[in-house]
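Session log. Operator J.P. requested a structure for one protein chain; no other inputs attached. Running the standard single-chain path with token output.
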Amino acid sequence: MTNLLRCFAALSLGLVAAACRGETSAESPIVPIRNMFHQQRYNPQSRSDFFADHRSMRKPVAHTFAREMEPSSELADGELADGSGYVMRTPDSVIGQLGGLDGAIARGEQRFNIYCVPCHDRAGTGKGTVFVLSQKNNSGMVAPTNLNDDRIRHMPDGQLYATITHGVRNMPPYNYSIPASDRWAIVSYVRALELSQAGEQ
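Structure written below.
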């Protein structure tokens, strides 16, 4: 019995080894569940027999939006809905979503320390590690903005948010790296940071 098992194991290993030759094949793969491999799909603007209006492209459900979309220009771009300027304060809906002002500031500090400190430093002076090293290497880097500067203090929250979103000069846009609510949280933290640094200037 033992010899029979050994022969069977050797034969199995031989078959496995023969199957793994490391070569590519032009033949289609063997797929046990074919309907998972070849699924039906509709091309844009194509006809559908499934829906009564025969349209394959469906309208979004009312009062919903895609996760990556922002519901309004005020939340998405920091601009007033009529395009006349920037939002003066971080929207209350965002503050509520972040767990109140304390939650927004705490989240903003966490994100600020990850994304902003390398250039702006922890105090927001614009003398972060990236800038200091660039000065040592004579790279000619433009100094990051001092976030405690009077100009930034009087800037609307929406404009500061738009700067984080779209970038400026050496600063890259963070709209793809940082979710909108976190960008607003960073704005809240910068405002708290400015207040904490006000007495030290």
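Operator note: Residues 180-198 form the longest helix (19 residues).
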